[in-house]
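User: I'm curious whether this sequence folds into something compact or stays loose and floppy. Could you predict its structure so I can see for myself?
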Amino acid sequence: MLEEGAALLITADAKLEGETLRLTALDVEQLDRAAQGVGQGMRIFLDAATAVPDIRALLERDGRGKGRVSLIPRLAAGQQVEITLPGGWNVSPRMMQAMKLLAGVASVEEV
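Assistant: Here's the prediction. I'll summarize afterward.
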């Protein structure tokens, strides 16, 4: 896990020994994996329905989890509908960034 550029969540024990601070790592976990367990969710605002197959592929790649995912397609002025996908999904900061880059996705909001 200790690679250059890797985002990690480290739980440590800190002890002050004289004027020296000693840190002992108790647990090390990849940050994306730790964030998946939080159960956060996201709302995906769509400009075009053509984004749906790519959204599905990203969700299936990371699999099921605790996060709620909703799609909000662009409708006529003054109209809005929110479609919540069944079940839970692994929602992570990396996943949300990947969703923002898809063609047809206007924005992504954490919930």
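Summary: The helical segments are 31-36, 52-62, 93-100. Residues 52-62 form the longest helix (11 residues).
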